[in-house]
Amino acid sequence: MPSAIQGKAERAFSSFYLLWTVSEALPQSVSGCVLHFGASVRRLSLLLVCLLAAACHRKPSIPPDVIARVGERMVTLADFKRYLERNTGTELAQMGPEVASAMLDQYVEEVILSEYAAGHGVEISAEKIAAAVRNDAGSTVIEKRDEMRRQKLMSDLSADIAPASEAEVNAYYQQHAADFRSGEEVHVRQILVHDESMADGIQQKLRRGVPFEDLSRQYSLAPNAKKGGEIGYVSRGELPKMFEDEIFSLKPGSVSAVIRTDSSFHIFKVDERRPPGVVDVVTAAPVIRERLKEEAVRQRIAELVGAARREIPIAALTKRLPFRYSGTLPKSENE
Q1: What is the mean pLDDT of residues 304-328?
Q2: Is 72 in contact with 314 (CB distance < 8 Å)?
Q3: pLDDT digits over 206-230, tens only?
Q4: pLDDT greater than 50 at residue 17
Q5: ∠ CA(294), CA(180), CA(301), 5° rounding?
Q6: The domain 184-275 is classified under which CATH number: 3.40.50.2000, 3.40.50.360, 1.20.140.10, 3.10.50.40?
Q7: Where are the domains of the chain?
Q8: CA distances (Å), origin 101, targets 1, 80, 115, 170, 332
Q9: Contacts of 312 (CB under 8 A, 6+ apart)
Q10: Residue 327 · residue 104 · CB < 8 Å
Q11: Do residues 35 and 18 lie in contact, with contact meaning Cβ atoms separated by under 8 Å?
Q12: pTM as predicted
């Protein structure tokens, strides 16, 4: 029983006991009056005790904005919306129910891992959390604490996994041979502007020998402008066909015509072409070992989440969700 409620109950009993003691010490005529009054007090005291006992056994109410429970931790709708915006750049209202359900499962799984990590000795110092928050202005202390717990947990898991053997590397290489064959690739740069006359002017400067990289830094609105417009190596199928056809027709060092889209004008340059080829197993081995380790970590995490779900009471409060939930979390429809 909570101490405050226990104290009230004790005071009620003390009042009753005091009245009974006084009545025993008084003359009968006076005692009768006191006992008559005492009976009323006893009834009131009994009612008070019953109410207090009921309050002790009443299930604590859950705040109205809570949409899921992970043990003692409450996940609010505001938490979930913030998670979506930070991780997908999309608002909940713009998502269909199936996507929203999958994202809620993913978010709760991250919370489960954080809580599991904390319950199994993985903790991060307040100083490290504060430093991480300072370096990510849009984050909160709880978000960074949870993220760093998960990172530490995965780092510990990765350190415990032995490197793949040569036989395992060879087997993976044979099973995923297509991953180590490459088609023709071209190294591409771009300039993107919204004005046609500006695009034509840039073309004229290119014909006069002004370096493409300099013009990209000066005029391009693309995110890679500061890198001289560098996109990097691309193969067929990675870019829109209208770009791809023009780019793969260019020789190294040559520049495309101005390509117009709905609202933009693009100019591309091909720096280099790489012919189709096959990456041998020796060259591929470091990549394969890293992939195998990542797969092992993912498998171990899946096992931990399964164990945590058995250890920690988890539920999605489906009646509180603003979409029809179809995910994998246990459902609580009465809260």
Answers
A1: 91
A2: no
A3: 999 999 999 999 999 999 999 999 9
A4: no
A5: 10
A6: 3.10.50.40
A7: 3-57, 64-180+278-335, 184-275
A8: 39, 11, 21, 39, 15
A9: 70, 71, 112, 115, 116, 119
A10: yes
A11: no
A12: 0.54
Q: Which amino acid is at 52?
A: L
Tokens read off for 229: 């417009």
Dist CA 62 CA 312 (whole Å): 18
Residue 196 in this model has a pLDDT that exceeds 60: yes
CATH class of 64-180+278-335: mainly alpha
Burial class (CB in 10 A: 0-12, 13-18, 19+), 302: exposed
- Specify the pairing of strand 230-235 against strand 185-193: antiparallel
H and E: helices and strands count for the chain = 11, 9
Cβ atoms < 10 Å from Cβ of 231:
19
Q: Cα 54–55–57 angle (5° rounding)?
A: 65
What b/e sequence results for 178-196 when a residue is b if at least 16 CB atoms lie within 10 Å of its CB, and e otherwise?
eebeeeebbbbbbbbbeee
- Say how far apart CA 295 and CA 297 lie, in whole Å: 5
Helix, strand, or coil here: 72? coil
pLDDT digits (tens, 9 = 90+) for 123-142: 899 999 999 999 988 889 99
- For residue 116, with 0-12 CB atoms within 10 Å meaning exposed, 13-18 middle and 19 or more buried, which class applies? buried
Dist CA 70 CA 183 (whole Å): 48
In the block, tokens 């179809």 appear at 326
- What 3-state DSSP class applies to 325? coil
Nearest CA-CA partner of 124 in 102, 149, 142: 149
CB 182 within 8 A of CB 276: yes
Q: What is the mean pLDDT of the chain?
A: 84
